[in-house]
Amino acid sequence: MSYIGVLPDDHLTQLAEIVARAYPGINIRTSEEKQRYAERLCARQAEDPSARLYGLYRDDMLLGGMRLFDFRLNLLGHMLPAGGVGLVAVDLAHKKEKVAKELITAFLQHYQAQGAAIALLYPFRPDFYKQMGFGFGTKINQYRIRPAQLPQGPTKQHIRFVTADDVPPMLECYNRYVAVTHGMIERAAVQIAGLLANPEYSVVGYEHNGRIEGYLAFSFKSAKPDHFLLNDLHVEELIYEHPAALAELLTFLHSQADQCNMVVLSTQDEHLHFLLDDPRNTSNHLIPHVYHESNVQGVGIMYRVLDTRQLFEQLREHNFGGQTVTLRLMVRDSFFPANKGPITIAFTSGRPTMEDDVAAQVEVELDVADFSSLVVGAVPFRRLHTYSRARISDAAYIPVIDALFAVAEKPVCVTRF
Fold first, then answer.
1. Of the N and C termini of the chain, which has fewer Cβ atoms inside 10 Å?
2. Closest listed residue to residue 179, CA positions, set 80, 270, 85
3. Among the listed residues 367, 311, 363, 359, the one whose alpha carbon sits nearest the alpha carbon of residue 335
């Protein structure tokens, strides 16, 4: 019988041992390194009450752990409670004993009980979490751009380096951006302070009339191990509230042409190539017939609906595409049965209400992973239908269902957890 609960501080050294073996790439090898890592876990748990470490025990033995995050997520313009999970680690001696399954089940149950209707994570293996009902979010696009390729504006007079004293205006800037950006996660001062305290990062801000309205966090990494003068500038985070802030931050990057080799920019903006006169990267890779490689892409953040009914209740003020239709929605959820089953939603000029006793005009059936991707706007319904990932009772309603879940912009998330 398993027990899952908050990890006491004196068990964090055990967790560090498990994490060190589960993730050898983080290079925690010596007993001193493991002790320092445990101390960092302890310090973070004390500083940030929104992130808690949990352990799974059997016969009083710690077999695995995870960190849970209490989030407020901008979903379709509405700030909703959400749950995140990270640092899922299982003792190598107890792999294939359903430890991870029990941890993730506990994660879902915890946040459903807290009133959250949606959860999210970064997968160590997308297929593993797809089987648990998590759907793909927006892809990341990584560009490698020579600084001189970036647009140079007329000025960067509002750009300055920010310090630890700038946490309040930085936090205000970030959360203003969250309030208008679908997919973003709200932060507290401790997270902004952590960003500014990271010794690997430098941060410049766009300040206008005493208010920070954009910022750029970046780091330098060697482009060639044997050439100490050749470095790439990696954009770690880019937030801007308006075009003027973006223009000056890009001008700052442009001005680094004599010092850095490439600007490495990872973004969920699928239109970034329109910013550049020459969007080609350095691969010189030609995709038939004549398509020049501009960037590489990757899948990452994944979303999962925990309670379909609760989600629509929390979004009762949202306008789902202005559509008027009664939809019977059958969500298959074998991993978390509390969420499976049909619901009937009457949309009136886009506003949803639960109407279980009303006859539906159309029925849609799909797996919870695909529904989760659909409802956050990561994929249109017509594509899920084309790929046989979704079934509809009447194909004439495909444009209507497509319009219900259409979004102006796919979800954006810059929070690492």
1. N
2. 80
3. 367
